[in-house]
């Protein structure tokens, strides 16, 4: 189909012509040009007419139509039933993703991050599942003043397979989704239920998507087991959060073809560090070792070598291995099980810096002065041979506890560990001068019984060895970011922006109640935060105040634009040190290596890659939280009726989240359990306040609670209030005394 008029070819003015030429051998008009031409036409246009306007040839039609469908999926255009194309913005349509709520309503999260979320009524949500991509039209405001919309077009169905629990009622098999943001039950025809029994967890293939007139239907394709089965919680989480957990045969074949020893040809051209006493320092259960360290004094300076597994030598851009790694975005660490980003033959084998074997690596070789400042650095590909697999406990025992047995066992690296300790102290001193934030928080580890259930939960205490490795990795990551900026290399940065004005306003409103103030106006620095943390460090309510300060911060994300790292007080920062388990690190490795070797590297859609990797990180966090919540509920099933001392860890409009002392498990104290009063949630004060009594429950308050219910289906623990202590109890007592006095006066008057 060729434009036979004498008009200038529209494709000659394509604003992205060079980009399309670099990506495709036979480029077609870019999305930008398509939208520009549609705008010039000024009215909805037929597909054939648009093809003529863009001089689309017969051989290009299939690719042109594919691009139009992709634009429709992403909400840039709307294709109606008559195959007429419309620009979405001209129709005042908003494209985005549906986020469901367990109560039946939902929201549209717009593709345009500047747009506000739009409320979707239960009627609108009956057409879709959580996660579906749609286009909506604003219809007005709801009674709370929120924008309300109606779904005009469904762009993409996100849920082809759903994991859920079988419910059988009157001979009809129904599956309730494990993802409570999907509140429509799925109907299963009698001959497609695989004879699954009530209460079993199953995978369902959706055969009929929900609509205004039809309920969703599906067929059971796999019975996963029952709630009591060991590991069922992970099987649920994998499917609920759409985590890839099986490698393709092609990816596995690629990984296995490298064998278990490095190719001697691959060593050529690399700096040989096999004699350097590099060591790995990790946790006791770690199996993938992607970093090794070494330090030595040179005159008035120190040399710090951080060697990182050279994953980029094995995972090539565009390969099946690369596609799998990108889809996963990161490894996911569940209790007792890891879903790796790379096949184990690489993650635990050839890429892992295991002791006493040759391994390929990328090195950040730094010089550090007596003040703890990095004065110079160099990146280069290398080959190394780790001289010891150490743990944080072993290193701490050697350096700080004079453990003679361990010191003797690792005598060949003892002096090197002392050197590392010296470098760490210099780096840590700089960290304190910089004002990087440090919050006191308790991490926990779940200890399991032989049958895979929780035996107990114990706190994890960070020792100096943790800090040594942390400072070494931070130094290498900062050098990586500086290298990318200095060489103008396109890659991903790890950004942590300053708190928003809204969060700052809420924070300052809360601090006023305590006679405290945060300096810095609308742009406080990390030092302003640090000064406040130091100011409250010795107060009895320090934990409460630190928690509120932490919650005022933004979430760290990946982006191709450097915006600095607020919490760490760095002008630029990236992730370089964990390419075995994080895809952004692999991107950074590729970028640095290409520049070092003076090779051209073209990373496509780098901005979208940042968003994708930030999304997979959030997905992993949500999945691990779900698994831990499920395990904790299972652990608490036989604790109903028991009482615990506890601390208020969160305040919401429907009640208090309370952490139980000693077992590090949270439960819900519903607002109706707080006392004989109407309680109102004060967001700025992080408190629930009684209207009549003025009794307040606030973040950090101490309580005594009883476990009254454990719901495995929702992974929730319900509590009742036994006693409020400290400040809360005093308020309660005062109120009671006052009321009693009032009753006496009234009685005397009646007499």
Q: What is the domain tally?
A: 5
Can you give the helix content as a percent range? 25-40%
Oligomer: single chain
What's the average pLDDT?
89
Return residue spans where pLDDT drops below 50 for at least 5 consecutive residues. 1-6, 727-751
What fraction strand?
25-35%
Descriptors:
751 residues; alpha+beta; Arc Repressor Mutant, subunit A; OB fold (Dihydrolipoamide Acetyltransferase, E2P); 5 domains; five-stranded antiparallel beta sheet; 20 helices; 34 strands; 32% helix
Set down the secondary structure blueprint.
Elements: H1 17-23, H2 31-41, E1 45-46, H3 47-53, H4 61-73, E2 77-79, E3 84-87, E4 93-100, E5 106-110, E6 118-120, H5 122-125, E7 133-141, E8 147-156, E9 161-169, E10 172-177, E11 186-188, E12 201-208, E13 217-225, H6 232-240, H7 249-256, H8 264-267, E14 271-273, E15 280-282, E16 291-298, E17 301-309, H9 320-328, E18 332-334, E19 337-339, H10 344-350, E20 358-368, E21 374-385, E22 389-391, H11 392-400, H12 404-409, H13 411-434, E23 443-448, E24 454-460, H14 464-486, E25 493-495, H15 501-512, H16 526-536, H17 542-551, E26 557-559, H18 583-596, H19 606-636, E27 643-652, E28 655-660, E29 665-670, E30 679-682, E31 687-690, E32 696-698, E33 702-711, E34 716-724, H20 727-750
Parallel strand pairs: 14-21, 15-22, 29-34
Antiparallel strand pairs: 1-3, 2-3, 4-5, 4-7, 5-6, 7-8, 9-10, 9-12, 10-11, 12-13, 16-17, 17-20, 18-19, 20-21, 23-24, 25-26, 27-28, 27-33, 28-29, 30-31, 31-32, 33-34
């Amino acid at each position: 189909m060729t434009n036979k008029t004498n008009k200038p070819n529209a494709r000659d003015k394509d604003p992205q012509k060079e980009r399309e030429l670099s990506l495709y051998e036979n480029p077609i008009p870019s999305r930008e040009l398509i939208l520009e031409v549609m705008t010039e036409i000024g009215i909805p246009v037929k597909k054939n007419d648009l093809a003529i306007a863009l001089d689309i040839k017969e051989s290009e039609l299939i690719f042109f139509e594919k691009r139009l469908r992709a634009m429709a999926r992403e909400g840039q255009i709307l294709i109606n039933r008559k195959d007429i194309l419309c620009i979405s913005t001209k129709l005042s349509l908003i494209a985005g993703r549906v986020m469901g709520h367990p109560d039946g309503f939902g929201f549209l999260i717009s593709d345009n991050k500047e747009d506000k979320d739009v409320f979707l009524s239960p009627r609108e949500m009956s057409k879709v599942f959580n996660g579906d991509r749609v286009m909506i039209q604003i219809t007005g405001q709801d009674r709370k003043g929120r924008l309300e919309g109606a779904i005009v077009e469904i762009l993409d169905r996100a849920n082809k397979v759903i994991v859920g629990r079988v419910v059988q009622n009157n001979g009809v098999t129904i599956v309730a989704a494990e993802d409570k943001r999907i509140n429509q039950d799925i109907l299963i025809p009698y001959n497609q239920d695989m004879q699954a029994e009530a209460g079993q967890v199953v995978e369902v293939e959706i055969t009929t998507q929900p609509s205004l007139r039809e309920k969703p239907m599906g067929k059971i394709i796999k019975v996963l087991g029952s709630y009591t089965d060991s590991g069922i919680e992970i099987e649920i989480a994998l499917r609920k959060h759409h985590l890839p957990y099986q490698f393709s045969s092609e990816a596995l074949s690629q990984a296995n073809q490298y064998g278990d020893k490095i190719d001697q040809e691959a060593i050529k051209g690399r700096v040989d560090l096999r004699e350097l006493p590099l060591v790995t320092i990790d946790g006791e259960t770690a199996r993938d070792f992607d970093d090794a360290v070494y330090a030595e004094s040179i005159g008035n300076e120190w040399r710090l070598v951080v060697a990182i597994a050279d994953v980029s030598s094995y995972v090539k851009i565009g390969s099946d291995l690369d596609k799998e790694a990108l889809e996963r975005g990161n490894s996911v660490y569940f209790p007792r099980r890891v879903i790796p980003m790379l096949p184990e033959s690489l993650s635990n084998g050839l890429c892992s810096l295991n002791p006493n074997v040759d391994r390929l690596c990328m090195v950040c070789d730094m010089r550090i002065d007596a003040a703890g400042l990095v004065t110079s650095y160099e990146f280069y590909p290398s080959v190394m041979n780790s001289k010891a697999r150490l743990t944080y406990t072993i290193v701490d025992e050697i350096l700080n506890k004079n453990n003679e047995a361990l010191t003797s066992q690792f005598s060949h690296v003892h002096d090197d560990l002392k050197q590392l300790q010296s470098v760490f102290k210099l780096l840590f001193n700089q960290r304190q001068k910089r004002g990087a934030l440090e919050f006191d928080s308790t991490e926990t580890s779940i200890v399991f019984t032989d049958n895979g259930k929780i035996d107990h939960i114990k706190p994890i205490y960070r020792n100096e060895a943790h800090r040594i490795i942390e400072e070494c990795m931070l130094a290498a990551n900062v050098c990586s970011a500086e290298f990318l900026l200095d060489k103008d290399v396109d890659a991903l940065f790890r950004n942590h922006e300053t708190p928003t004005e809204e969060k700052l306003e809420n924070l300052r409103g809360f601090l006023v109640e305590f006679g405290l103030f945060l300096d810095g106006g609308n742009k406080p620095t990390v030092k302003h935060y640090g000064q406040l943390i130091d100011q409250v460090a010795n107060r009895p309510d320090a934990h409460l105040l630190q928690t509120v300060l932490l919650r005022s911060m933004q979430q760290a994300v990946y982006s191709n634009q450097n915006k600095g790292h607020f919490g760490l007080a760095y002008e630029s920062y990236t992730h370089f040190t964990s390419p075995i388990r994080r895809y952004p690190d692999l991107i950074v490795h590729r970028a640095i290596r290409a520049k070092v070797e003076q090779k051209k590297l073209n990373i496509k859609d780098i901005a979208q890659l940042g968003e994708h990797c930030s999304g997979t990180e959030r997905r992993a966090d949500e999945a691990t939280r779900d698994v831990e919540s499920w395990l904790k509920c299972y652990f608490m099933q036989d604790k109903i009726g028991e009482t615990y001392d506890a601390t208020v860890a969160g305040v919401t409009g429907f009640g208090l989240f309370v952490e139980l002392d000693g077992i590090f498990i949270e439960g819900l104290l519903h607002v109706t359990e707080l006392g004989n009063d109407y309680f109102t949630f004060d967001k700025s004060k992080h408190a629930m306040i009684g209207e009549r009594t003025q009794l307040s429950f606030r973040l950090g308050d101490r309580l005594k609670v009883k476990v009254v219910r454990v719901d495995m289906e929702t992974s929730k623990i319900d509590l009742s209030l036994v006693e409020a202590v400290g400040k809360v109890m005093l308020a309660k007592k005062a109120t009671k005394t006052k009321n009693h006095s009032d009753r006496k006066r009234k009685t005397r008057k009646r007499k």
